[in-house]
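Input (structure):
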């Protein structure tokens, strides 16, 4: 049986009459010694949303300890913002296992808690059991009752009832109503309600503005000057034409060739994208005030005393 903190429980609580959020931070007192035990820090519920435990921080009473108090052992006073722990003693609190987190709560852990709260009730029931004396039946007329003096023999005391045993596979909280039932006597309260005007705002879509872009095409023309080389061959007659050349100066070569590289420029035209303009899209909130008027109701407490009732009758 898994337990959850009330604020983490996803479903709606079935114990709606238990004003769960009011009792958080209520002081917890023992109804035996009237000592302050601690403060309610949270409420633990089961899978069905039933309240099962109050998580109590003992504070300075037993420093640094948090313990579980079954809801059936609590008596709540909303006017005093106080929870009275029924039959809770300091020794019990010291014997209770410390609450660390929900991950370590299992059947064995709860059995440790329940074992501490079961013991005093069992002892109390045995102490208050008194043997009954033998006597005449209650419905026997006094005139016919035997008045002869005789020695009265006390009836034997009834054998103590065997302590119930519990099994982890069949255990349910309903088997121990003294620990988990929320009686009307201990948990009842009278609430006075009033209506309040709560103004909320709902965001409604009233329109849509679509901002997009499209591509337009244009014809562009560009002129690029280019250069190219050409070879110019010019034949001239030297001024010393006809001069005799010495035999060693004449160098006749077969197949001699003069090579000249010729270049020309070709246009390199391509398209590149550039940022032309930037558009910023923002929204501006305009405020307006809407006024509303409603009729509100509120409950007041009526107290009628006995003397007032007698005066009315007379």
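Output (sequence):
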């Amino acid at each position: 049986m898994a337990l959850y903190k009330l604020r983490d429980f996803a479903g709606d609580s079935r114990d709606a009459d238990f004003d769960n959020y009011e009792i958080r931070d209520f002081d917890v007192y023992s109804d035996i010694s009237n000592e302050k035990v601690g403060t309610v820090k949270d409420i633990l519920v089961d899978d069905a949303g039933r309240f099962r435990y109050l998580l109590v921080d003992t504070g300075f009473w037993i420093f640094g300890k948090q313990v579980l108090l079954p809801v059936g052992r609590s008596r709540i006073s909303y006017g005093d913002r106080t929870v009275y722990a029924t039959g809770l003693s300091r020794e019990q609190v010291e014997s209770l296992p410390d609450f660390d987190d929900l991950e370590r709560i299992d059947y064995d852990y709860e059995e440790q808690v329940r074992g501490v709260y079961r013991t005093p009730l069992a002892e109390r029931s045995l102490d208050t059991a008194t043997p009954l004396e033998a006597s005449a039946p209650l419905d026997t007329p006094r005139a016919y009752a035997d008045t002869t003096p005789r020695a009265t023999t006390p009836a034997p005391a009834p054998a103590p009832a065997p302590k119930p045993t519990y099994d982890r596979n069949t255990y349910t909280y309903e088997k121990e109503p003294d620990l988990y039932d929320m009686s009307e006597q201990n948990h009842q309260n009278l609430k006075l309600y009033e209506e309040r005007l709560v103004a909320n705002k709902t965001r409604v879509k009233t329109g849509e503005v679509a901002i997009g872009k499209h591509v337009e095409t244009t014809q562009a023309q560009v002129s690029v000057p280019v250069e190219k080389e050409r070879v110019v061959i010019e034949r001239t007659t030297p001024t010393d034409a006809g001069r005799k050349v010495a035999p060693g100066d004449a160098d006749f070569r077969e197949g001699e060739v003069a090579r000249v590289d010729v270049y020309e420029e070709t246009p390199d035209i391509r398209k590149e994208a550039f940022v032309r303009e930037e558009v910023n899209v923002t929204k501006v909130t305009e405020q307006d005030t809407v006024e509303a008027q409603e009729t509100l109701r509120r409950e007041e407490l009526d107290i009628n005393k006995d003397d007032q009732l007698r005066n009315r009758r007379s």
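Notes: Residues 107-127 form the longest helix (21 residues). Strands lie at 4-5, 27-30, 36-45, 51-57, 66-70, 74-77, 82-85.
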